[in-house]
Amino acid sequence: SLTRIENYNELNVLNFFSSFENVNFEAVINHLSTKDSILNSQPLHIFTLELFSGETEVVKTYKKWTIEGVESFDGIESPYDRDRLYALINNGSDFVLIQYFVFDRIIKPLSYFLEE
């Protein structure tokens, strides 16, 4: 469902939209052996973008398991890679590896847009 925001931070909204420039993936991995099981898991994010042409583009991200089994960062252990995610792009036709470094610019909580 959509939420209408009346009092928003204009600078943060403008920064958010400019963050969509140069959003790239690291590698195409369409033939990854574990692709089907990853796609059957719960997506971490689902982005739905309406293009100027009126077409809709859907991007889904999925957590990536670490190669080592567990990563430790600032004393917190996690079985997930802290640098990379999987993503399904081009409306489901390509499976790619992406970096949090790139996508953190567009993964913002609602509170980021609200005027304080």
Overview of this structure, please?
The chain is α+β, with helices and mostly antiparallel strands and 116 residues long. It has three helices and seven strands. The strands form two sheets. Strands 1-7-6-3-2 form a five-stranded antiparallel sheet. A two-stranded antiparallel sheet has the order 4-5. β4 and β5 (76-78) form a beta hairpin. The radius of gyration is 16 Å and the shape is globular.
Uncertain parts: none
Q: How do the SSEs run, as a string of H and E?
A: HEHEEEEEEH
Which structural category fits the helices and strands?
alpha+beta
Order of strands across the main sheet: 1-7-6-3-2
Q: What is the overall shape?
A: globular
Using only C-alpha atoms, the radius of gyration works out to: 16 Å
N→C terminal distance: 23 Å
The level of helicity is 10-25%
Number of strands: 7
- How much of the sequence lies in strands comes to 25-35%
Counted by DSSP, the helix tally is: 3
> What is the mean predicted local confidence, pLDDT?
87
**Mind summarizing the main beta sheet?**
5 strands, antiparallel
Question: What are its keywords?
Answer:
two-stranded antiparallel ribbon, 116 residues, alpha+beta, five-stranded antiparallel sheet, globular, 16% helix
Concise synopsis of the structure shown:
The protein has 3 helices and 7 strands. The chain has 116 residues and is of the alpha+beta class.
Give the arrangement of secondary structure elements.
Elements lengths: L9 H9 L8 E2 L6 H5 L5 E6 L5 E10 L5 E3 L2 E3 L1 E10 L4 E6 H4 L13
Antiparallel strand pairs: 1-7, 2-3, 3-6, 4-5, 6-7
